[in-house]
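ok so I'm stuck.
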Amino acid sequence: MQLHIEKDQKEIKQHGNYEFPVHVSPESIQSYEQGTFLWHWHREIELTWIMSGQIEYYVNDKKYTLSEGEGLFNNSNALHSGYMIDGKDCNYLSITFHPRFIYGYENSLLQTKYVDFITSNEAWHSLKLRKDVDWHQEIIRKVQEIYRLSLTPPNDYELQVHLLLTDIWRRFYLYYASLPASEHQPQKHLKRLKDILTFVQNNYTQELTLDDIADHVNICKSECCRFFKKYMKMTIFDYILFLRIQNSLPLLMEGESVTKIASTVGFSTSAYYGQIFKRYMGCSPSQYRREHLEETSFSS
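replied:
not stuck anymore, here's the structure
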């Protein structure tokens, strides 16, 4: 399994629906290819509770190690990705909800005073919910209550979830409103990072050079490399190779020839594709296709 994302890294997934824009979903990092879910963003706010194990979680330029009993607040539009630690699974709960679930209608006082105050500030992209902070654990308990309600929804399920999420949001508001004014200034790096990721996503099948990428965001090559590695924790070209391999997986399952797949996703030769594929996936493209087809056949 892997996330479906648009060319600007926005996740293609329905998080609830217009009438009730809330999605409660138990997840397992092991269910994703390579124990990793790719960099993406979405308009919805996300609350994560670690049910068992550990996960390495990145949000914009911040790296977290989250363990059982801890959680994470992931703000609207923040770029994030997750990685397995030491080959061990992590089970976690994800609750995503659209900001309007809190504020109701556009330009209401609830939106302009209490919601936009947080969601519009890139500096507040995320917050680790720790075991040793009382109000953090109170939020975790409310997340657990939402999960319990979702298993056997009562008649007033939607109302109870709304009350719980509104109270969680109130706690975040009180925390961020208490910070000194110096911490209210938004960061300016996110647009540049999204511009690079979008450009790479749009052009990864072609021969991309560092000059191409740096020129696109109007910075020098050395600054482009430094900037990207600082926020993504990998080089630009490692990311391009990773993206090519990930986008080749559905083609393998559709039965395309390895030679055609290599060309389609931007590799100069099938041999080079096979070499990079083995580096990331631990097996050859043919082995991967055979093993996953056998798994699919067995499960059906």
